Amino acid sequence: MSNTASNVSQIAGYAEAIGWLKGDPKQLLIDGKHVAARSGKTFKSINPATEDVLAEIAEGEAADVDAAVRSARRAFEEPGWTNIPPHARGKMLSDVADLVDKHADQLAVLETLDLGAPINVARNFVKYCAQTFRYYAGWPTKIMGTTSPSEPGRLIYGLREPLGVCGLINPWNAPLNQAATKIAPALACGNTAVIKPAELTNFTTLRLAELMLEAGVPPGVLNVVTGYGATVGSAITNHPDVNKVSFTGSTAVGKQILAASAGNFKKVTLELGGKSPNIIFPDADLNKAIAAAASTFTRNSGQICSAGTRLFVHESIHDEVTEKITKIAAGYKVGSPFEAGVELGPLISAKQMERVLSYMDAGRSQGATASLDGSRLGDVGFFVQPTVFCRVDNAMKIAQEEIFGPVLSIIPFKDEDDAVFQGNNTPYGLAAAVWTRDISRAHKVARRLQSGRVWINTYGEIDQVMSVGGYKQSGVGREMGPESIDAYTQTKSVIVRL
């Protein structure tokens, strides 16, 4: 394994990305201007593939959040944003999508450098970002009010209005996707925003904000404050002039945000952890099901909240499925995310690598059989090989806790009821999948699974029209799709005596 591709400098967008990274520390973006953190502090951004320092990042704190919120409040109340016609707001979001496409190569390289995702994965993230802005570009003209039947001489109607200032707090595992998922609907509905990217992955959020200014989004409508969750994130969630918080991340932090929202009754949307069941019945198209099962637990090195890390396989085909998945996963190439043919880049950090390795140890110590026994690869970069455990008991730690790494638990089941019971037997309910040629069974099982999304005979497909969110401890509310418009607006009833 090599940590760097020999021809990396020839990759489209690489020179532009490196040029953007050079110079002064990457600063906050408040009121349309790049500014240093008020404390003057910075922190280092580390390349997870090489462990080299990529850049210094401004370390924002509560005072910076306060300045950003004031900027967002001014922008929300000024006619330059509030009075923009819906068609013009939609055109602005469409222009953002065009600029994302124009700078797609640079954005993909920045994502790969920062996150460690293979360059082809990063390019798909960029495509999704552009698609998301185009989807929401169509919404400003379709956020409708209502009229209600009433007596003669009286008119009752309803308005749907923006909430105000939205605090957007993102995870590190798909930074550009997550930024688009929150920013686009918030602005489509007429809100302004303060966004905090994860401290481990800041580049593409900052670059996207610059492109939005270039597209004509007024200063202050979107502000970016980089820094740590304990300072910046906490300041956003506790700020009395933030009307809405949207957070994607761990369930533990989500609970803290929900508690903090009581301070001023903030509206809250939370997309949290997952331990998603992927269920294969004996009558499934096994070639497709097995290929998808191997792909989903290793995509982005397993750092996806909806990854199908609990694979439920009917006991009659358990050994066959295990053998084939093990063979596929063993053939995946782990290495530099810029290298051709690499399926798994590094994990995001040394801390995350140690966490994942500890779960591998837990699986072995609790008696799970490793049909593919992965470990750290090399001594530079945070590379971890895929691991497949078979005949796992659903009560084991590796089956109940979110690992966020390329670790698969294969769990046998007896029948449909057993598959549903075990699939639901977890605190989480973010996503699930069912593989079967029996269309009746497919729909029945999908209905019974306690999950915000269910895929049938596929896994991980996404579309902006689909809502995203979880049952149980996987979250509160929904993002994407029409439901996201409800999440970023509030309603007002008006009665008129004619």
Q: With helices defined by DSSP (H or I, 4 residues minimum), what is the helix count?
A: 17
Task: Give the N-terminus to C-terminus distance in angstroms.
Answer: 77 Å
What would CATH call the homologous superfamily of the largest domain? Aldehyde Dehydrogenase, Chain A, domain 1
Name of the CATH first level of the largest domain: Alpha Beta
How many domains? The number is: 2
The residue ranges in which pLDDT falls below 50 over 5 or more consecutive positions are: 1-5
Q: How many E-type strands?
A: 20
CATH architecture type of the largest domain: 3-Layer(aba) Sandwich
Mass-distribution shape: globular
What CATH calls the topology of the largest domain is Aldehyde Dehydrogenase, Chain A, domain 1
Sheet with most strands: 7 strands, mixed
Q: Enumerate the strands of the largest sheet in spatial order, edge to edge or round the barrel.
A: 14-15-16-13-12-17-18
Mean pLDDT reading: 96
The fraction of residues in strands falls at 15-25%
Radius of gyration: 23 Å
Q: Structural class, from secondary structure content? A: alpha/beta
